[in-house]
Amino acid sequence: MKAMRLAARQTASRQRERGASLMLATLFMVLAVSCLAMVVDTARLYVEKRKLQRVADLVALDVAMRGGLCGSGLLGDAQTLAQASAVRNGYNDNLTTAPNAVELGYLSTSAGVRSFTSSATQREVVHIRATKTVPSSVLAGGWFGNSVLLIADATARRAPMATISAGTTLLSVNSTQSPLLNGLLGGLLGSSLSLTAVQYDGIAKAKVSLLAVLNQAGLLQGDLTVGSMTELLNTSVTAAQMINATLDVLNAQGIAGASVMKTQLASMPHMTMKLGDVLGIDTSGVVSKTSQLTANVNAMDLIVGTAQAVNENSAVNVSLGITGLSNVSLRVIDPKKTVLGPPGQDLSGNWRTEVKESQVKLTLDIAPSLLSLLGTTPISLSIDSATGKAHLASMNCRTAADSATSVTVGANTSAAIVKLGAASNTAQPVDFTIANINVLGLLGAKVKAKLQMTSSVANSNNLSHTFTVSDEATQLPAQVTLGGGYDISSALNTQLQLSSLQTCVTIIVEICTPRTGAEATSVINAVLPLLVAPLNSLVLTPVLNNVLPLMGVRLGSVDVALLDVDVGGTELVL
C-alpha cells in the first residue's frame, strides 16, 4: 500500500514537471518568435529606409546637376526634375506633396553644425525629403494595422563658376593697336615699350592659370581657408611682381613676346596695389578654393589691369603716337578687373559675381592745324567715363544628355561725357580763327568764333547675353558687345557749336564786330561741316574706337568676356 502511494506521488510529480516544461517551452517559443519577428522587422525597416534614402540621394543629385546654381533656379523646375527622377528610381509618390518636399536654399553653420535653410532668393543647394508609410511590424502590424512613417532627407549641390571681365578683352592685337599699347602701357608702367603686333598678339591670345601666376609671384603659402582667401585679396603686390609672374608663366608656355616684354619692363618703378584691385574671387565658400584658383584668366587682362591699378586716381602722361594729338593725360578711376565665382544673387540681392568696366578720364590737346584752323589755341578733348557693370546671372550646366553649358550674363552700360573746349577747361568754349588775311601785322581782316561741344552718353540697363559653350578649349575666351554704342558722328552734327561770331578789321589796331542773324547763321552752316569731318575721322573715331577699348572702356556699350567655365561636380552635402 505504501509502495502504491509512493508510485502515485511520483507519477503526479512527473506530470507536474511535464506541465511546467511545456509552459516553459511555450513561453520560450513565444519569446523566440517575438525576437525573430523583431529581428525581421528591424532588418525590413532598415532595408526600406535604405531604399528610401537611396531614392532621396539620387533625386537630390539629379536635381542639383540641372537645378539650383546649375539651372534656372526656379522651384517649379526643380520640382519637375525631382519628380521625374523619383519615378525613374522606383518612387511613385508625389515628392511635392507634404510630408514630402523639394526645396531650394543654402547651407548655414551654427556651432560647427551645418544645416539646410530654405530660401526663395539664395538657391545654392537642393533639399529632398521622401517619405514612405510601412507596417510597423509584420506580426503586430498585421494584427493591429500599426504603421510607421519612414523619412529620408538628402541635400546636394553642384557649384559651378565662371570667369568674366567687363571692358574689352584683347583677344587679338593688330598693327594699328600695337603702337597705342606701347604708349599706353609704357606710360602707365614708367617704361618704354616697343613690342610688335605679333608679340602682343601672342600675349593677348594666351590664357594663364590663376594658381600658376599666384604661385610664381610667391603669393600662395599652404592651404587657403575662406578667411585667408580674403587676406589674399588684401595682399599688397608690386606691378613688377604681378606682371613678371604672368610673363614667366607665358614664357614657360612658349608664348611669343613674353620674354621681350619682361626685358623691356625690367626698369619699371616700384608701384604697389592690392591683389583684389585686379582680381575678384568669391569668398563665401559656395565654390571651392581649388575651383577658383585653378581658373584660367586672360594674360593681357592681368597686365593691363595691373598697369591701371598701380596708377589708380593718378594722372599719367601717355603717348598715343597720333599726329596732331598731344599732352595726353590718362587718369584711371577704376582699373580693369577680372572676377570669378558662382552665378546668381546672395541673400541681400547682390550678384555673387559682378565686375565693373574700367573707368577712366582721358584728356588731350588737338593741334589747330589738324583741323585746318589758323592762329588758334589748342582745342582740348575730355572724355570722362562712368562705370558699366556685368554680372554672372545664371548657368545651365552640361549633363550626359546635353553637352553644352549655357552661361547668361547681364550688364549695364556706362554713362559718359565727351567735351570739346578750352585747353584749361573743356567746359569753356575755345577761341579759333576761321579766316585770316594779314599784311605785316598792320593791315588785315579775320573771322573769329568760339567752338564747344558737350555730349552726354546715356547708360542702358538690363542687357543680357547667353554664351553656349560645349568645348572650353576652343570656344573660350568669347566676347560680346552689349548696348547700342555711341554715335560720335551724330553728336558732332547735332551738338558741335559755333558761337560769338565776329569779323575783325586791323588797321594798326584790331576792331571786331559781332555778327548775328542770317549772316552769322550762313557762316556757321558753311564752316561746321568743314570741322566735323576732320574731328570725326582724325580725332574722335580713333580715340573712341581704338584708344579707349585698349583700356577696357567703350562709350554707350560694354564688352563682356567669358574667359573660363567650371561646371563643378555634384555632391551630397547633408
Task: List its salient traits.
alpha+beta; 5-stranded antiparallel β-sheet; 27 strands; 2 domains; single chain; 574 residues; elongated; 9-stranded antiparallel β-sheet; 36% helix
Structure described in brief:
The chain is α+β, with helices and mostly antiparallel strands and 574 residues long. Helix 1 crosses helix 2.
Description:
The chain is an alpha+beta fold and about 575 residues long. The chain folds into two domains: about 40-160; about 160-570, no CATH class. The chain is about 35% helix and about 30% strand. The chain contains 14 helices and 27 strands. Strand 24 and strand 25 form a beta hairpin. Helix 1 crosses helix 2, helix 8 (about 240-250) runs antiparallel to helix 9 and helix 8 runs antiparallel to helix 11. The radius of gyration is 38 Å and the shape is elongated. The termini are far apart.
The backbone outline, from C-alpha atoms, is elongated
Rounded to an integer, what's the Rg over CA atoms?
Answer: 38 Å
State the helix count.
14
Name the structural class: alpha+beta
Number of domains: 2
Mean pLDDT: 86
- The total count of strands amounts to 27
Largest sheet report: 9 strands, antiparallel
Uncertain runs are none
Q: State the end-to-end distance.
A: 84 Å
Helical coverage, percent range = 25-40%
Name the beta content range.
25-35%
Topology:
Elements lengths: L1 H65 L8 H14 L12 E10 L2 E6 L6 E11 L2 H7 L2 E12 L2 E6 L10 H12 L8 H8 L2 E3 H7 L9 H8 L2 E3 H14 L5 H7 L7 E3 L4 E3 L7 H5 L2 E3 H11 L5 E3 L7 E10 L3 E4 L12 E3 L2 E8 L12 E7 L3 E8 L8 E8 L3 E7 L7 E10 L3 E15 L5 E7 L2 H4 L2 E5 L5 H8 L1 E11 L1 E6 L2 H34 L7 E9 L3 E3 L2
Parallel strand pairs: 9-13
Antiparallel strand pairs: 1-2, 1-3, 3-4, 4-27, 5-13, 5-26, 6-10, 7-8, 11-12, 12-15, 14-17, 15-16, 16-19, 17-18, 18-22, 19-21, 20-21, 21-24, 23-26, 24-25
Helix pairs in contact: 1-2, 6-8, 8-9, 8-11, 13-14
